[in-house]
Amino acid sequence: MTQATPLKNPAHGALIQDWQPENEAFWQARGKRIASRNLWISVFCLLLSFCVWMLFSTIAVNLNKVGFNFSTEQLFLLTALPSVSGALLRVPYSFVIPIFGGRRWTAFSTGILIIPCVWLGFAVQDSQTSFATFMVISLLCGFGGANFASSMGNISFFFPKAHQGGALGINGGLGNLGVSVMQFVAPLAISCAIFSFFDTGTHTTVTGESMWLENAAWIWVPFLAIGTLAAWFGMNDLAAARSSLREQLPVLKRPHLWVMALLYLATFGSFIGFSAGFAMLAKTQFPSVVIMHYAFFGPFIGALARSAGGIVSDRLGGTRVTLVNYVLMALFAALLFLTLPGEGQEGSFVAFFAVFMGLFLTAGLGSGSTYQMIAVIFRKLTLERIKAEGGDDALAQREAGTETSAALGFISAIGALGGFFIPQTFGLSLAMTGSPAGAMKIFLVFYLCCIAVTWLVYGRKARA
Q: Alpha-carbon distance 385 to 307, whole Å?
């Protein structure tokens, strides 16, 4: 066991100078407590970020009910745009924690989400609000999705490698739960006049029911304020996690970065893409079903499965869990064709819903297992490289933490693109053929390719 070195700053104040998570004595004495506090504040802020990120999955379904006249393709676009900005912003967000510090950045990135929430609340009350305005607000909501990259990178610095899969699974999984929380809370919030003193327009829908659609956005503002204050006063910055952008960029040259980005796109990309597009898709296939009564179940299952995926992968190995998971994803994608209406069959919403829950489950589980693979692979490769170059253990641990954090963030940016491509592919398939079957064929082929890649790159080595 490595002997603890004297602490320069023994866990007092916002900035911790000396952090030794791999040292068992340090970890048990104070590290575990500090890491847990930062983890749970991070979970709360990330959950709110996902609530904001996926707001339009609820808003878009209801816009035409309150007097707007947008086409199905336009509504699918509004659900997809946050994933575009979220994915693009995850690239710079991947590198900010070592530059600015986890506490400062978490507080800032949570606080700025109040802007699109407030703006959206006023925009939905005026039926003259242009589609372009909603596009801008939709892109601003994407800042919530970008927070995932910085949040996961930050938490990776706090935990020893033996606990990283579980910690990242909890942070990511419960953070992902924000999608389900939003899709459960928002329909309830829009049914009553919570913020009536801010109302500026009528609240009678075209079908004669009362709806306060602005509440879907405004309900998160007080919680975002609380999360911002909690991050600023309750989290820590780690001096050991500090590094320049120049020190982090070499991770882009690692071949495993791009392989794991592909695998993560299939898992998390599916989770966030289905979360964004499921309600709109179900509405087009089964218009008689009030889908917002059920839409939150999928993201809820997927988020919990992500936490389980990280923990199970710590025990059984991320490669093994990921490989089995892709087989199940391909199976559920194939079964979905049997549930759709068309070609002489009415389709079954119950079967459609059940199969999609299977897809959400496996997408969440795979998100946790692939993220565990990323942490293990990059830490191992970096430690081996630094030691081969003659570096000491302290340098190797520092470089491993920096490179792992950058890899986690950058790969998460690629994965977030699924939130754009999946709703857009559904929309294109519906526009061209009237059915989402064409889109599902693409997804099925992609999952089959991921089975092959996982086995060829990682599975065979694990068995050797």
A: 30
